[in-house]
User: Which sequence fits this backbone?
């Protein structure tokens, strides 16, 4: 494993007018790692996520991917470097079929013939082969989340960023999503932003807790659960 | 059958019909009607350029008349100066294309929303109209071709067989040239749409953000589509200047832009065949109105546009597609029309 | 949704119905067909309507008097909708499909230059009945309208004698305005005067504020206007509003051609001096009879028979005379008849075709606008189109086919 | 010195004209996000109603300031009920439907009223500044433009209808919940926008030739002013009118009226590119 971290941020800041959304965030992720980011609403999780994907240009600080500075680059550059991005609200080609959505992602990376094969395998892997002809716009929310997952992994990115992949899902669907993410982690590093603690417990190895735009602590899930400050700030309110 | 998979068959079918029509028409039509049909075909090429950039690439361009006019003027000015028409025809494609590239870069790399793009393209065509309209003075000339301002450039030499400037195309040969160009462009666009680039362009229209997150630089693809649309419209302009051997600033006018939009809306946004049929139908209707004094042409065009936007928003062809589908009850989970 | 489906089917039905209605109008096989291409809608309709009315009256009178060579004359009307593409389409339609004997049409010089080549190529006789900048030399074309040498040549000396030598010219920005302003400059310098400035305006300009200020700064003795179209009307209105009419008098080579004197208030245009071939107040018996027939046909409140309307009326009469003399509607025979010097006693006085230049020798009068009427000041009889005949002689070289732009 | 004075009066006049012709559009597009390409024809209808009223003996000022807005306002209600109501939220379709409406109006007016240019003479006389004379009417227009801005500001800021309208536009669902019927507010707002356009038409009748096709020359400038102005209606329209009016008049003075127009359009295109959200997208943030 090369010593250079897969993804690193150096005192990343973001100010919207008066709001200081992210404060001097230093974050490191190594190859193949699965990291979860949790924190109450408004803790800066999504802002941090958008700074990584280039959707938001940071006020100051750096974002490095394999040592290469990608701070505030054009939004399509991270994807070309091998970062797969799934946004909070499923964003798909609604007018096109599931097959076409996944094929489009594959065809950017692979030549024509290989792309067809990758598309078939990816749909197989995510279990959507039976739905490949249906139009994504007309599908249920849970299914659309999985289609988006398939679209992201079809391009075989080395790092996948997922923003609340389990949002709006039934327990049984959450269970299946967790298995999927673990299976994906066999070949791809992942960062999952989520605030559903039961889901976190199913998949997490390391957890980073955000609070008011800064990293409060980074630890294994159980340790995070029992950390008094985290409880007071985050779990305490919920538990009471 | 989703939008992509059924396109090869319908494309081949339409092109076959086109070729048959092109060969049959000159046989059973007198030469006046042939000249009339030629202008319909030329305008159909313009309609296709608008259908491609708006229907498939999602670029709301209200100023397609600028490239159309630029093509006509470039051809007129260069053929008067050069005599031989082959290079002027190429120029009439390249220059509008280049202008589309510059204007497209100016707009797409500026994060403009659709509405602003519509207004800017409309304003650009007005800039062309006002500027060319005020070049009537003798000092406005390029080489020995006066720009002519409001009265335009009369008696423009027509396209000649490459090599000898004397042997110019007669109306029949010009009809064949325009018709086969239309068919070739139609085929080319359908091939492009079913190719990888085409898929990406359509995907960008569907959801630009997702396409960007997949690593496609949406701006570059849109610029490519916009430039291609500019070239096709330029060629249509060149044929238009050739057809009437005349061109004037009214080619850039608001009314010309409005007509192009009406053709695509009436014909069917999101298809290529629709606007061709819409264009020919409207052209025929406005000419008929001209010979009858009963209705005012603006009134009829206005009613058509309002009725179609309210009642038949998808245009003739897609609505026909729906009707046929309901009649024959084909079990098709059809998302967007091809 | 049933309601929507119902509307869609009826909408489809209406569209088909209107399309079906457009059969060609009733035309007997052996009628003599006369084509008329004028703008009856769009920006230039204020000129086209009176012209088509006059042509209709002329043809009805001809048919009432037994038609032409024993046949009925039928008018085929095309509305070119102030759109150049339509001019080309209809010229081709008239020449190739309807195969008319003659085409009367074209209002602006731009539209003439569109249809003239088409009609010449397709061998259809063409009459251009509008006053224009002169210089057209084409064996297949006859221009019955007045040219600068006939009108401006009278207007400028009269105005300079009356008001002074310093002139400011404003004109419509197309070849009519461009060339006519050159003629104004020629006659002003010949009369020992000086043109301070010539300003050109596209046809859709409506805000003349800055221009009026510039004219005031130049302090000319009088202004010459060659403005054209409905939008330019606002110049006269703003000129009157700024109280300039009393300070700086004005002469015009285009005013009243679109009946501007009827629309504008007297204090916005009184005192303007014009020069044309026809005014309603011309005291010839033919004119009285013509006006009576015109008002009977088109209503007593018809604003004013314009110069262009009379040009079209006389154009048709000249063509009819030539057909009678040639005894056939064959193009070449009619041209030869016309070139032999056809002349008619028209409402505007004697009008004779000048065989060499294919233009007309006719009376020209100077008139002054007074309370929406045009009072005749002076009349000059039988003025020749000296500007065009100086450069164009179709008898010597009949193959000549171009418009000479007179170098002044 | 007089020339400088005259130039400034002309610039003010041009700015005033821009404010007047785009006020109605600012309401309809600025507040309702409805792109009304028939705005030019609303102006034309306003001009014709002013002329017919004056010919029927009504005092010209009443015809312009009262009759024209009311007629076009009523027409606006009819248009909103028949066409615009079905198209809220579908911006491109509204654009096309109103374009059809504008062609339809031109055709209808041409066939009913015919095409002879009609008009009414400019009221009041003129006065002179130094060697130059300026018509009272020009200065009257400048004053009216300023009054118009303040009137709109007063209505929007300090009347409950203004508040309801602004609220509904921002969040129709919320208005519904509070018992205000958005459909009624939409039709009233559209009618007010149409009335303002009618007023503009009436005011411009005396200074321009009134023909069925006169709308075309105003539509482009009105749109550029409103879009150039940006989200907030008043500050945006005022600042954009000032900027574009100045550029137009100065270019006209230096070169010819044509290049004055071209300069205006080029300035608009460049500015839209620099400030995609319009002037008030960046400056005067949050003002009305």
Assistant:
């Amino acid at each position: 494993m090369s010593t250079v971290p897969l993804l690193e941020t150096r005192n990343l800041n973001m100010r919207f007018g008066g709001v200081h959304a992210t404060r001097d965030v230093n974050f490191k992720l190594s190859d193949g790692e699965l990291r979860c980011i949790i924190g109450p609403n408004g803790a800066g999780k999504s802002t941090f996520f958008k700074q990584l994907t280039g959707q938001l240009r940071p006020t100051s600080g750096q974002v490095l991917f394999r040592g290469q500075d990608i701070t505030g680059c054009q939004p399509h550059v991270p994807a070309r470097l091998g970062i797969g991005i799934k946004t909070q609200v499923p964003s798909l080609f609604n007018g096109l079929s599931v097959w076409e959505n996944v094929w489009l992602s594959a065809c950017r990376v692979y030549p024509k013939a290989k792309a067809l094969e990758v598309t078939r395998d990816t749909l197989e892997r995510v279990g959507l082969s039976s739905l490949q002809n249906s139009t994504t716009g007309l599908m249920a929310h849970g299914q659309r989340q999985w289609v988006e997952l398939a679209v992201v992994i079809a391009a075989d990115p080395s790092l996948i960023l997922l923003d609340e992949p389990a949002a709006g899902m039934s327990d049984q669907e959450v269970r299946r999503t967790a298995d999927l993410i673990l299976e994906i982690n066999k070949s791809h590093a992942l960062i999952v932003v989520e605030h559903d603690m039961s889901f976190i417990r199913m998949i997490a190895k390391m957890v980073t807790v955000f609070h008011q735009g800064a990293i409060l602590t980074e630890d294994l899930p159980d340790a995070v659960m029992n950390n008094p400050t985290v409880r007071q700030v985050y779990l305490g309110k919920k538990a009471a | 059958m989703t939008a992509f998979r059924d396109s090869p068959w319908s494309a081949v079918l339409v092109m076959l019909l086109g070729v048959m029509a092109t060969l049959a028409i000159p046989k059973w039509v007198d030469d006046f009607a042939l000249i009339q049909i030629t202008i319909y075909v030329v305008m159909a090429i313009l309609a296709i350029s608008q259908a491609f950039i708006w229907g498939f690439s999602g670029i709301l361009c209200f100023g397609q008349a600028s490239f159309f006019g630029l093509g006509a003027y470039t051809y007129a000015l260069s053929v008067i100066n050069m005599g031989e028409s082959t290079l002027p025809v190429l120029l009439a494609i390249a220059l509008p294309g280049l202008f589309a590239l510059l204007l497209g870069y100016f707009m797409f790399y500026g994060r403009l929303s659709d509405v602003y793009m519509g207004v800017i393209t409309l304003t650009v065509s007005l800039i062309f109209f006002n500027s060319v309209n005020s070049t009537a003075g003798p000092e406005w000339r390029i080489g020995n071709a006066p720009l002519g301002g409001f009265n335009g450039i009369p008696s423009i030499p027509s396209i000649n067989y490459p090599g000898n400037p004397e042997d110019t195309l007669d109306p029949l040969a010009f009809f064949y040239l325009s018709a086969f160009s239309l068919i070739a462009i139609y085929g080319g666009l359908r091939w492009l749409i079913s190719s990888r680039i085409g898929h990406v362009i359509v995907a960008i229209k569907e959801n630009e953000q997702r396409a960007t997150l997949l690593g496609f630089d949406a701006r570059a693809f849109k610029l490519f589509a916009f430039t291609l649309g500019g070239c096709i419209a330029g060629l249509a302009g060149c044929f238009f200047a050739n057809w009437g051997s005349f061109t004037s600033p009214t080619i850039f006018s608001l009314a010309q832009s409005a007509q192009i939009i009406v053709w695509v809306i009436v014909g069917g946004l999101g298809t290529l065949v629709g606007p061709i049929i819409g264009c020919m139908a409207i052209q025929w209707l406005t000419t008929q109105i001209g010979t009858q004094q009963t209705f005012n042409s603006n009134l009829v065009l206005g009613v058509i546009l309002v009725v179609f936007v309210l009642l038949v928003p998808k245009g003739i062809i897609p609505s026909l597609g729906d009707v046929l589908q309901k009649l024959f009850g084909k079990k098709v989970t059809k998302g967007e029309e091809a | 949704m049933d309601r929507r489906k119902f509307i869609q089917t009826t909408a489809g039905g209406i569209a088909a119905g209107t399309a079906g209605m457009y059969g060609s109008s009733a035309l007997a096989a052996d009628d003599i067909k006369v084509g008329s291409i004028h703008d009856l809608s769009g920006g230039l309709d204020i000129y086209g309507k009176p012209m088509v009315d006059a042509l209709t009256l002329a043809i009805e009178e001809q048919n009432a008097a037994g038609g032409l060579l024993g046949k009925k004359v039928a008018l085929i009307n095309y509305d070119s909708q102030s759109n150049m593409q339509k001019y080309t389409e209809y010229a081709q339609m008239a020449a190739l499909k309807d195969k008319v004997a003659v085409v009367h049409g074209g209002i602006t010089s731009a539209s003439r230059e569109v249809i003239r080549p088409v009609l010449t190529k397709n061998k259809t006789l063409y009459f251009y009945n509008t006053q224009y900048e002169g210089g057209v030399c084409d064996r297949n074309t006859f221009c019955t309208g007045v040219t600068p040498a006939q009108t401006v040549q009278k207007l400028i000396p009269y105005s300079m004698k009356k008001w002074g030598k310093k002139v400011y010219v404003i004109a419509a920005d197309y070849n009519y305005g461009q060339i006519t302003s050159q003629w104004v400059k020629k006659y002003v310098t010949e009369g020992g005067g000086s043109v301070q400035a010539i300003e050109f305006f596209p046809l859709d300009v409506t805000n003349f504020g800055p221009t009026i200020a510039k004219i005031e700064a130049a302090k000319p003795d009088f202004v010459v206007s060659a403005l054209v179209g409905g939008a330019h009307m606002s110049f006269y209105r703003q000129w009157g509003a700024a109280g300039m009419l009393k300070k700086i008098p004005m002469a015009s080579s285009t005013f009243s051609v679109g009946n501007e004197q009827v629309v504008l208030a007297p204090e916005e245009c009184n005192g303007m001096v014009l020069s044309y071939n026809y005014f309603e107040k011309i005291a010839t018996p033919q004119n009285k009879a013509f006006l009576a027939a015109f008002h009977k046909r088109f209503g007593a409140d018809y604003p004013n028979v314009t110069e262009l309307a009379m040009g079209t009326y006389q154009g048709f009469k000249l063509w009819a005379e030539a057909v009678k003399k040639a005894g056939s509607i064959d193009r070449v025979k009619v041209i030869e008849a016309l070139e032999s010097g056809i002349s008619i006693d028209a409402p505007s006085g004697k009008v004779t075709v000048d065989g060499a230049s294919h233009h007309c020798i006719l009376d020209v009068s100077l008139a002054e606008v007074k309370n929406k009427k045009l009072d005749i000041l002076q009349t000059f009889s039988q003025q020749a189109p000296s500007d065009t005949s100086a450069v164009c002689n179709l008898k010597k070289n009949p193959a000549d086919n171009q418009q000479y732009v007179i170098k002044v | 010195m007089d020339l400088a004075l005259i130039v400034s009066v002309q610039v003010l006049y041009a700015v005033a004209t821009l404010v007047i012709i785009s006020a109605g559009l600012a309401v309809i597009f600025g507040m309702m996000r409805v792109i009304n390409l028939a705005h030019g024809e609303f102006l034309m209808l306003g001009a014709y109603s002013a002329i017919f009223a004056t010919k029927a003996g009504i005092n010209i000022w009443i015809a312009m300031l009262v009759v024209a807005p009311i007629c076009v306002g009523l027409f606006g209600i009819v248009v909103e009920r028949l066409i615009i109501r079905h198209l809220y939220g579908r911006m491109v379709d509204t654009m096309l439907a109103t374009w059809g409406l504008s062609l339809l109006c031109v055709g209808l007016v041409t066939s009913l009223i015919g095409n002879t240019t009609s008009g009414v003479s400019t009221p009041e006389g003129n006065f002179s500044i130094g060697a130059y004379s300026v018509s009272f009417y020009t200065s009257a227009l400048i004053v009216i433009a300023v009054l118009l801005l303040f009137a709109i500001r007063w209505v929007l800021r300090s009347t409950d209808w203004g508040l309801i309208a602004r609220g509904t536009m921002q969040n129709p669902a919320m208005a519904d919940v509070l018992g205000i019927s958005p459909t009624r507010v939409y039709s009233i707002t559209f009618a007010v926008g149409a009335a303002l356009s009618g007023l503009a038409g009436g005011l411009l009748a005396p200074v321009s030739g009134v023909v069925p096709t006169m709308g075309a020359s105003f539509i482009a400038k009105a749109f550029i002013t409103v879009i150039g102005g940006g989200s907030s209606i008043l500050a945006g329209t005022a600042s954009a009118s000032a900027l574009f009016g100045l550029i137009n008049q100065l270019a006209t003075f230096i070169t010819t009226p044509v290049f004055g127009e071209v300069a205006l359009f080029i300035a608009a295109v460049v500015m839209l590119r620099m400030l995609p959200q319009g002037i008030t997208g960046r400056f005067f943030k949050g003002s009305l």
Q: What stands out?
A: The first strand of chain C starts at residue 32 and ends at 38. Chain C has two domains: 29-147+278-363+383-408, 152-252. Residues 29-147+278-363+383-408 of chain C form a domain with the Rossmann fold fold (CATH 3.40.50.2300).
